[in-house]
Amino acid sequence: MKKDEKLTEIMFKSLAKDPGLASREEWDKAGDWAVEMRFFPHALSCYQMAAEIKKDEPILVKINDTVDKITNVLEFVPERLKAPLEEIRLSNPLDPSKWLAISNSLLKEATEAMNKGSQPAEDLMEASQFALAFGAYCAVRSGNDIEPINGLLRDLILPVDLNSWQSPKLDLKSIDKDQIRVVALGDNVTLGLNSDWGINFQETYHYLWSQASGKQVSLANNAISGAGLLDLALYLGRDAIYFKPDIALINFGINDVWLGPDIVHAYEVLLELCVKLLERNGIKPVIITPIPHIASACPEEQRPNDIDVVDLDTRNFADACIRVAARTGTVLANAYNKFPQDETQRKEYLENGFNQPNLAGQQLIKAALDEVTIA
Fold first, then answer.
1. What single string gives the DSSP state of each residue in 261-298?
2. CA distance 238 to 70
């Protein structure tokens, strides 16, 4: 499939939230194009712009269908969250004020326990962390200040000593099955998007890794362009747990970074809790750090508003992945360190010049995965 320049331009115009930038028909077609490319968040924005111009049943159906794709939703969360979530899960699960109310209630319960001289239960603390982190993502996407939430998250994140830590190995020999089921979860890097907006599945790091593993592997590529850690939490049931894989490869961060450096605490907390939820459902998670991108090379029309590229290094997110892996004993493939630090050299591994690896770049990620794999 070849890139449609006009529809692509209109798709990214949706980031400006100005319906007057295109006609209703153009927004509608750009939304269809985004769905085809698995740019679900952008598709929703396009359809919403079309609806701003004229609401009718066809466009409302498309909005609802896209919402189902991007909010199909929160079925696997810490146990203490299940009851309060029922009130918002099918209405607006991305309302930051509702998440703040849930987290305040949970933290009040934890404070009452401490005032009585008791340590809050682990499940209560996990639920509090999840609610705060998820609420932070919803808040920053709505343009709200998340520093008060970050203050709480920093206090709840346990420190970890990385001085002597090394990633455990992923021992494929220990999985006593004729065929190993693997699901790849991530963004456009994992999806294998190319500069013509086609998908090169056979050039993705996970496909290359599976082919070289010496094992029979059933591989599902459930990545979505534009996705971040919030989407991992939303889709954990649909795209991972219900698939019943033996292994889940997790690679997010190059989109999270565009939410600003303040989101890294929520990223770390949500990643850790999603890893734990996968493990509790009998799935072996493997964390793959985000790759370094070149934020300054991102086309202006593809950037969110009011973003300064100076603070958009994915290193902080890669470091968060390492801390999560160390705390949870999870296998970690450090793809970030495989790419050149020099931006000019790094461009040789990026198909679009700023964040999408070409075949050579995908092979670097595979190499990081190979290093922690026992085949």
1. GGGHHHHHHHHHHHHHHHHHTT-EEEEEPPPP--GGGS
2. 11
**Own/partner pairs, 190-194, CB within 8 angstroms, 24+ separation:** 190/221, 190/223, 190/249, 190/251, 191/38, 191/221, 191/223, 191/224, 191/225, 192/221, 192/223, 192/362, 193/37, 193/225, 193/356, 194/351, 194/356, 194/358
**Does 56 share its domain with 88?**
no
Q: Which of 156, 178, 210 is the last residue of a domain?
A: 156
Structural tokens at position 335: 């793809």
Name the strand (E) or helix (H) holding 149. Answer: helix 147-156
Name the E strands within 103-174: 170-171
Nearest-5° Cα angle at 121, 267 to 160: 45
Number of domains in the chain: 3
Q: Which of 224, 186, 200 lies closest to 40, judged by CA?
A: 224
User: Locate tokens 């734990």: which residue?
Assistant: 276
User: For 4-13, 150-159, 281-290, 304-313, which range has the lowest pLDDT when averaged over its residues?
Assistant: 304-313
Separation of alpha carbons 229 and 158, rounded Å? 19
Q: Is residue 103 in a domain?
A: yes
Helix (H, G, I), strand (E, B) or coil at 41: helix
User: pLDDT tens digits for 69-97?
Assistant: 765 578 899 999 998 888 786 667 888 99
3-state percent helix, strand, coil for the chain, nearest multiple of 5: 60, 10, 35
- Flag whether pLDDT at 300 surpasses 90: no
Q: Is residue 259 included in any domain, yes or no?
A: yes
Between strands 331-333 and 284-288, the pairing is parallel
Taking the C-alpha atoms of residue 256 and residue 3, their distance in angstroms, rounded to an integer, is 24
Q: Are residues 179 and 133 in the same domain?
A: no
**Alpha carbons 144 and 95: distance in angstroms, whole number:** 12
Q: How is residue 331 annotated by DSSP?
A: E
> Does one domain contain both 109 and 236?
no
Distance in angstroms (rounded) separating the CA atoms of residues 310 and 116: 46
Q: Tell how far CA 149 is from the center of its chain.
A: 20
Q: Which of 156, 179, 199 is the last residue of a domain?
A: 156
Residue 100 belongs to what domain range? 79-156
| 45, two tokens | 């924005």
